[in-house]
Amino acid sequence: MGEQTAETYTRRPVITARAAATFEPVGRSVASARAFVRDTLQGWGHPDIIDDAVVLTSELVTNAVVHAGTAADVLCMRTGTGVRVEVADRYPEREVPLQSSARRIGGVDREGGRGLLLCAALATRWGVEYTPTHKQVWFQLDLPDRPAGTRSAGPALPTEALPLADPRVRVAVVQLDRTGSITGWNDDAAALFGFTADQVTGKPLTDFAAWPHTPGTSTGIAEALRLSRWEGSYGIRGADGRITPVYASHLRVRDNEGAPSTVCLLVREEERAVLQSLQRSTPAGDSGSADRATADPFEVFIGSPAPDDLDGLLQRTVERARDMLDGDAAYLLLATDDETELEVRASTGLPSARQRFARVPVEAGTGRYGSARMPAVHEDLAVIPGAVPLLADTGMRSVVTVPLKVEGRLTGSLGVAAEAPGRYSNEEALRLQFAADRIALAVERARLNELERLRRGSLSFLVEASDLLAGTLDRDQTLALMAQMTVPTLATWCAVYTVADPASEPELSYVLHEDEDRIDGLKTLLGKLAPPDPVPTPGARVWAAPSEAAHASALRGSLRSLGLADSAEHPAAPSTSLATAAAVGGETVVLPLVARNRVIGMLTLGKPTDDHFRQEILELAEDLSRRAALALDNARLYSERTAISQSLQRSLLPPELLHVPGVEVDVIYRAAGEGNEVGGDFYDLFPIRDGAYGFAIGDVCGTGPEAAAVTGLARHALRLLAREGYGGPAVLERLNAAILDEGARSRFLTLLYGELRPQEDGSAVLKVVCAGHPLPLRLRQDGTVEAAADPQPLLGVMEDLELYEQTVTLEPGDVLLCVTDGVTERREGARMLGDDGLTDLLTTCTGLTAGAVAARVLRAVERFAAEPASDDMAILAMRVPELQ
User: Fold this and answer.
1) Residue 15 DSSP class
2) Which of 11, 149, 533, 562 is 20 to 30 A from 312, alpha carbon to alpha carbon?
3) List of residues 6+ apart from 619 with CB closer than 8 A
4) Closest Cα to residue 31, out of 404, 470, 325?
């Protein structure tokens, strides 16, 4: 027996699911690993731990592919109690910080050990394991408890106290898709309402539902179908045209493909006890008084089961508060973190789209009636206009408000209003305060849970946003990424303004709306407005101009269409469509894009009509704007550097290829590297005197400004000295002295220089000097290839050079090929094209024009290796045409 117990304790948890993937050591693998873990856990049905798992995986895979520089193996395993993720790299000897050493593990701002610090903070368990070939870091996240068993139960009742029902109780089950159309209709539904499944499938539920439309007394059917859970009464119009009152329970679910749908359970109104949640109170004289005394006051008020999400809890709270006081409307506000403002989070009987996330100050005036910290009863709002700003223009006359407090701290406010004056007194205020005291702790707990989910979601969002922004140095792509990350996650629409320099006006650079059909109208509207001021003050500030202009323009267009507008006033003023006005008619905020102590633009976010931003969203947008500003400024600096480099590179090459009578000449130049950094190779072809032309092809050691300086010196010195009448050796000797005069900035230079003279007999005479450069190759008509010059010392190394020139005659059909070492030193692993490879290639070019020879050489170099060329290449081909 003891042996079995020991075996039980050492047995490893049973793995119920496994998924593995390997990611190459490149930057994009980090995002791919995050997507792999997110999709795996989503498929396993564990959304509660996705954010933590994605953040930890991102850090560990970054350590593997970026810091360790090896491929990363990611393994996800699910057991009965949690999910374990293992990330292994192939650098086993790499030092790993120890958890026991605070000095080694460092802080969150340090690069080393940050992944393990996050593991210690977020994971249930974690560790590091070594093998001879791998280092593995793992973490485990326990699955949240999901209690099973009885959720609620009522007391035992005598038979005569049980609710009445027909002998055959029918429960109609109606399944709706995301649009509210019927997809399922069971036999009980057909028996209750007279329609067969074929008659109703595909039709909206609103075609059959008789929804109560008393103003301010219920949630509309569209809103009810979007709630996670809903209970209530309405009517169903049957096949005979009669309306059957029903009691319904709606549950929002998601199918295997992730599409939302709604399951509706319906019974006759008189049989509502079959579906209705536990009653708030038990009839008088009930023998279950002892059970009532021990009932949970929270569930007595809110009902059972209580909603799991904060929005559902708040919505049910306001509905029950309204019903408890027989009001026409109710609303609930939550306090901000600094407790200076209250934010509307739920309402019923009020225009919720306009009120949601609206803010009011906690202290609106003097005395108890001006503070949300004390209960207050307003018998007639018409006497004191503006006493309750949220109820302005709603038709409400009397209102009672009470605070929600936890341990003496204000966490919110609950109010119930009625259209008639004098409806409420201190007695109703006490009843509502009692209910608020019961619900306050649950609301605060749900609010903190929501904030924690938002925090973790925000962290995951910022990690991915930083990864995307760091992956590009293109200005336009950075602007597009900024907008695409905010829409629709943070806002309905977004506009990015850029500021070129402190003296210039902001320019509208990018516009995006979640509805693509609205982008053009939005861009036109913003283009007519003066841009927001580029104020460097951090944080979001409200910009009212877009919504005001949209509404004014839409109204002007509507009046014009009705013939009511004065044609003499604003005769050519364009109008904005009502759809565009609605799309931008909500709150608009502007966040400055500040990088390196300078405002480089503004990020503008907007909501549709009567919608507002939550403070948490604005704080997340502010974090994003700081990262986006730095990425945009880096892209600007990189673009400027690239433009300067390309402009300087062009200045070091001849603007166009010179035409030489009687000789075909073609040049191909390819600058290697992203951004085409200046320096490196160059070529030139220029007239010296009548009938004589100078040509050169060279390669300066290194790249960058120092190499570019020598390149420009060499090219212009060659032209000047050659036109002064110096021969090839003298030109190069003087150029060598000029390079050495540069001192520490000098660079050695390989150069092939020559003079070309076309002859009357169709040939061409060349006098060449090859100073350390790859030798020019001569291709004869018979296919033989030979070097056309001897190697001589390169320039920029020795002071005294003894150079000499060699004469080469190109007969009709002959080709002279000159290249830089970017061609001959092209590599694929240990292989190199080399001089022999170039010679063999040139033997296949007999009969080709100069341009065709240069093109064939370029193709051969590009195909020699799969990787892009790492060195500049210059190819100069000259051919004497055959005599006709």
Assistant:
1) P
2) 149
3) none
4) 470
pLDDT digits (tens, 9 = 90+) for 151-187: 456 667 788 778 788 888 999 999 999 888 999 999 9
Q: Which of 174, 170, 172 lies closest to 262 in space, CA to CA?
A: 174
For residues 595, 599, 603, 609, the Cα torsion angle rounded to the nearest 10 degrees is 150
Q: Environment class of residue 482 by beta-carbon count within 10 Å: exposed (0-12), middle (13-18) or buried (19+)? A: buried
HSE at residue 704, side-chain half, CA atoms within 13 A, is: 5
Structure tokens at 126: 């974690």
Q: 485, 567, 598, 583: which is closest to 526 by C-alpha?
A: 583
Length in residues, the chain = 884
Q: Burial, 284: exposed, middle or buried (Cβ in 10 Å; 0-12, 13-18, 19+)?
A: exposed
Q: Prior bond to 488 cis, omega within 30?
A: yes
> CA-CA distance, 489 to 620, in Å (whole number)?
11
Using DSSP, state whether 148 is helix, strand or coil.
coil
Q: Bridge partners of 401?
A: 376, 415
Contact by Cβ (8 Å): 95, 57: no
Preceding amide of 305 cis, omega within 30: yes
What the block records as the tokens of 43 is 């498929």
Is there a contact between 607 and 488 (Cβ–Cβ < 8 Å)? no
Dihedral of CA 337/340/344/346: which sign?
Answer: positive
Per-residue pLDDT, 110: 42
Angstrom distance (rounded) from CA 496 to CA 486: 11
Residue pLDDT, tens place only, 515-563: 888 888 888 888 888 888 888 888 888 888 887 777 777 666 666 666 6
Our CA angle for 770, 772, 777, nearest 5°, is 50
Contacts 24+ apart (CB under 8 A), 91-98: 91/64, 91/135, 92/130, 92/131, 92/132, 92/133, 92/134, 92/135, 94/68, 94/135, 96/128, 96/135, 96/137
Q: What is the pLDDT of residues 584-617, one digit of tens each?
A: 777 889 999 988 888 888 899 988 876 778 777 8
Token digits of residue 634: 């880096």
pLDDT at 343: 83
Alpha carbon 36 to its chain centroid, in Å, reads 17
Dihedral sign for Cα 833, 836, 837, 842, please.
positive
Closest to 106 (Cα-Cα) out of 117, 96, 95, 91:
117
DSSP state of 845: G
pTM higher than the cut 0.70: no
How far is it, in rounded angstroms, from Cα 734 to Cα 739? 9
The backbone torsions φ and ψ at residue 657, rounded to the nearest 5 degrees and listed phi first, read: -80, 130
Contact 333, 346 (CB under 8 A): no
E strands present in 104-242: 125-130, 135-142, 172-176, 182-185, 209-210, 229-237
Strand partners, 243: 237
Return the percent helix, strand and coil in the chain, to nearest 5.
35, 25, 35
Which is more confident, 750 or 81?
750
